[in-house]
Design brief:
This protein is an alpha/beta fold. It contains 20 helices and 18 strands. It has helices at about 35-45, 85-90, 90-95, 125-135, 140-165, 170-190, 195-205, 205-215, 230-245, 255-265, 310-315, 325-330, 370-380, 395-400, 425-430, 445-460, 475-480, 535-565, 575-580, 585-590; strands at about 25-30, 50-55, 65, 75, 105, 110-115, 120-125, 245-250, 270, 275-280, 285-290, 295-305, 340-345, 360-365, 390-395, 410-415, 470-475, 520. The strands form four sheets. Strands 1, 2, 9, 10, 11, 12 and 18 form a seven-stranded mixed sheet that branches. The chain has a seven-stranded mixed sheet with strand order 7-6-14-15-16-13-17, with helices on both faces. A hairpin with a 2-residue loop joins strand 6 and strand 7 (about 120-125). The radius of gyration is 25 Å and the shape is globular. Residues about 1-5, about 15-20 and about 570-595 have low confidence and may be disordered. The structure holds flavin-adenine dinucleotide. Flavin-adenine dinucleotide binds near residues 33, 83, 413, 483 and 491.
């Protein structure tokens, strides 16, 4: 369905009103139809705004798209695939996307992590089975896992609410504190700082428990030694145990379809193949956008940008409209690691050595916690990992609609440096099959690195390569070509490390979606709370825009009330919306000050 959302329609209000008025062509333009942009647009449309979403690519969805890129009948999620964060997100739950055709499904097992010479670490849907497997791996690990899970369940609702709401999360923060108690808050504070390696060493004895938690932390560009990795790994493990790793029936793109369907039903419009090249700024306020085709679209109220923060500020807005303090901080925005992904069409399911991996939607591949540390160290030194940590998706196992019966639609991705300075594997293993990966990601690099990934899977699933019918490779460069927000293959809109989270996201002093340009809001994963498909960045931006607009009307509405009380005729709604009230710059400045 979404492929057809190329349109020149004029957005209408939920009330059915159409056409232009003197307050701009639309109330708001949302730049980018990724999940955050689409969630933002939905909330604005719910508030009665006329919303136009401009999307650079030919189809909406950003990093939530599905296509047949390997072989006929195989639906491959081009980027993201598993959605525990979406399932837990209050912003997405409020949209009731199930009413717009979205159906979730699950693999029989959430996750497996095969280990050489040991049984696999397995996250079962049934906690008793997860506990039993860990207990068998090391006495005491099962009980320790159950305690960690109970700790997660006690606080998960207010904690997710706190993490996904705008910063500071006052109400949900209070709820979290009440739920956790004083010692619980202390524990959570420590958990948010302690590195994953220390966290598992304090609690568990088995390699299985260590890689189970650490593998989760490495979904983001965190390392077993970095601050914040324990919290992220604990959160994702807790979510996996509590809710599984759900996927949309039919492919990730169905989530996008549902968001677009809901938006258009409320009068919003998504225009594809419309790249925004400039945010028009007048007297410090965003007044519209210009597209690559030269179209200028005026906005009456706001521009919301589901774009990379640096690209927004430096390219679309331009340094001339930004305070020096912001300009000084933008170069410090740290990219997450780059990503290399391969999709396969397989003639049959993967022949894993360890049967535990057969029913798992997600499979992690690393030999040990130590190996994850070595990989992280190589990435920090800009080296191509000797043994890349693989995240694998068995999509037909999770959702049988993804490929013909008896086959498997599968992917694997791994992180590589943004800038490659060396490839230790090619030197050390010169006698093996390896060519040097130079990091230019041309055909040779892609061929070599894809072959390494396949060889890695073959080691734990002998016969895997013989089942490959077709494959499709996404290098860091291709990723950015397909979605401008995936800068250099960074999947999270900037590093997920603690020094670029909360009030440090995307630069020190932000944390909120407001930018130094009035009426311009950052709605992408570059904003707090960052990467992942949860829609919170978009929801936060939309709520901020709506709140600012309401504030800006206050003096005018007060004047209208005052006049009415004095018996004079009431102010017309058009004038009320057109006049910029004297108090507005102060309101905006008050909120923008931390950013400036
Ligand atoms: C390979 C990969 C695997 C991932 N796996 C998962 C996963 O399993 N689960 C999970 O929760 N998350 C996952 N993620 C992360 C998640 O997909 C992103 O964090 C999320 O999509 C961010 O949403 P967004 O709306 O901020 O940006 P995006 O989804 O990147 O969307 C941005 C949109 O804006 C458009 N755009 C950008 N600039 C312009 C412009 N100037 N004019 C017009 N349009 C513009 C882009 O074309 C794009 O459509 C993965 C990401 C990748 C790349």
């Amino acid at each position: 369905m979404t492929a057809g959302v190329v349109t020149t329609e004029t957005p209408r209000r939920g009330t059915g009103r159409t056409g232009r008025d003197d307050r701009g062509d639309v109330d708001a333009v949302v730049i980018g139809a990724g999940p955050n942009g689409l969630v933002a647009a939905n909330l604005l449309a719910d508030a009665g705004w006329r919303v136009l979403v401009l999307e650079a690519e030919a189809t909406p969805g950003g990093a939530v798209r599905t296509a047949e890129v390997t072989a006929p009948g195989f639906r491959n999620d081009l980027f993201s695939a598993f959605y525990p964060l979406a399932a837990a997100s209050p912003a997405l739950a409020d949209l009731r996307l199930e009413d717009h055709g979205l159906t979730w499904t699950q693999a029989p097992t959430v996750l497996a992590h095969p280990l050489p010479g040991r049984t696999a670490a397995v996250l079962h849907r049934d906690i008793d089975r997860t506990v039993a497997a860990l207990e068998a791996a090391h006495p005491g690990d099962g009980d320790a896992y159950r305690m960690e899970d109970a700790r997660f369940r006690r606080v998960s609702d207010p904690m997710l609410d706190s993490l996904l709401r705008p910063f500071p999360p006052v109400r949900s923060g209070v709820r979290l504190a009440l739920r956790a108690g004083t010692s619980g808050v202390r524990e959570l504070a420590r958990l948010s700082l302690v590195p994953m390696r220390r966290y598992v060493e304090e609690r568990f004895g088995s390699e299985q428990a260590a890689v189970l938690y650490a593998g989760m932390a490495l979904h983001a560009d965190l390392t077993p030694e970095s601050a914040g990795s324990a919290l992220f790994g604990w959160l994702l493990t807790g979510l996996g145990q509590q809710r599984g790793f759900p996927v949309p029936v039919g492919g990730a793109g169905r989530l996008t379809d549902a968001l677009v369907d809901r938006l258009t039903a409320r009068g919003g419009v998504v225009r594809c193949s419309a790249r925004v090249v400039q945010v028009l700024v007048r007297e410090g306020r965003a007044v519209g956008v210009r597209t690559a085709d030269g179209d200028e679209i005026g906005v009456g109220r706001a521009v919301l940008a589901d774009t990379d923060a640096s690209k927004l500020l430096l390219n679309l807005v331009g340094p001339q409209h930004l305070p020096a303090s912001t300009l000084a901080r933008v170069p410090r925005i740290q990219r997450g690691g780059a990503t290399f992904k391969v999709d396969w069409a397989l003639s049959s399911p993967v022949p894993w050595d360890d049967a535990a991996a057969h029913g798992a939607g997600t499979v992690h591949l690393a030999d040990s916690l130590d190996q994850l540390t070595v990989t992280a160290s190589e990435l920090s030194r800009h080296l191509v990992p000797t043994e890349p940590f693989l995240l694998v998706g068995q999509m037909t196992t999770a959702d049988p609609t993804r490929s013909p019966a008896g086959t498997e639609s599968m992917w694997a991705y791994t992180h590589v440096p943004q800038e490659v300075r060396g490839d230790p594997t090619s030197d050390r293993d010169a006698g093996l099959h390896r060519q040097q990966v130079r990091g230019v990601w041309d055909d040779d690099d892609c061929e070599e690195f894809a072959a390494r990934i396949e060889a890695r899977i073959e080691r734990v699933a002998p016969g895997f390569r013989s089942r490959i019918l077709a494959r499709h490779v996404l290098s860091p460069r291709t990723l950015e070509r397909m979605d401008a927000n995936l800068v250099g293959g960074d999947i999270n809109g900037g590093t997920a490390q603690l020094h670029q989270q909360l009030v440090f996201r995307p630069v020190a002093g932000w944390a909120r979606p407001e930018t130094p340009v009035r009426g311009l809001y950052l709605a992408s994963a570059s904003a707090h709370p960052g990467g992942g498909v949860h829609g919170a960045c978009g929801a936060n931006a939309a709520r901020a825009a709506i709140a600012h607009h309401r504030w800006s009307l206050r003096p005018v509405l007060a004047l209208a009330t005052h006049r009415r009380q004095r018996g004079s005729s009431s102010i017309s709604p058009t004038i009320a919306a057109t006049v910029r009230p004297a108090g507005q710059p102060e309101i905006d400045r008050a909120i923008d000050t931390p950013n400036g």
